Amino acid sequence: MNTNNDIKHREAGQLNAFLDTLTYWERVEFVTAVIRRFKVKRQTFFNWKCMACRIPAEAKEIIESEAGHTIFVPDEPEMCAAQ
User: Fold this and answer.
1) How many Å apart are CA 40 and CA 22, to the nearest integer?
2) Residue 38: how many CB atoms within 10 A of its CB?
3) Residue 1 confidence (pLDDT) above 90
4) What is the CA radius of gyration of the chain?
5) Is there a contact between 34 and 45 (Cβ–Cβ < 8 Å)?
6) SS (H, E, C) 47-58
7) 15 burial level (CB within 10 Å; 0-12, 13-18, 19+)
8) How much is the pTM?
9) Distance between CA 67 and CA 63 in Å, rounded?
């Protein structure tokens, strides 16, 4: 079972992995586009990035829309190791 803490860490890791592929100015433009579309402060975006809170589903859709591809991949279901 994934706890809230596990989920926010996984999502922040996925977001940071994407942001690391961008140049400085691409990152600035990307963050600006996301915060304008979702109507939040820049600090909120950085709270998501720094694992301070979970990213809302609608914000994930906007982030992926701005990125042009899927960023947030859910965890693999836990497998039973019954042998």
Assistant:
1) 21
2) 18
3) no
4) 14
5) yes
6) HHHCCCCCCCHH
7) buried
8) 0.86
9) 6
d(Cα 23, Cα 34) in Å, to the nearest integer? 16
- Return the sign of the alpha-carbon dihedral for residues 75, 21, 15, 35: negative
Q: Are 9 and 56 in contact (CB under 8 A)?
A: no
CA 72 to chain centre: 6
Residue 74: predicted pLDDT = 85
- Closest-CA residue to 11 (of 68, 66, 50, 62): 50
| Alpha-carbon gap, residue 48 to 50, rounded angstroms | 6
Higher per-residue pLDDT: 34 or 77:
34
Question: What does the pLDDT look like over 8-60, one tens digit per residue?
Answer: 999 999 999 999 999 999 999 999 999 999 999 999 999 999 999 999 999 99
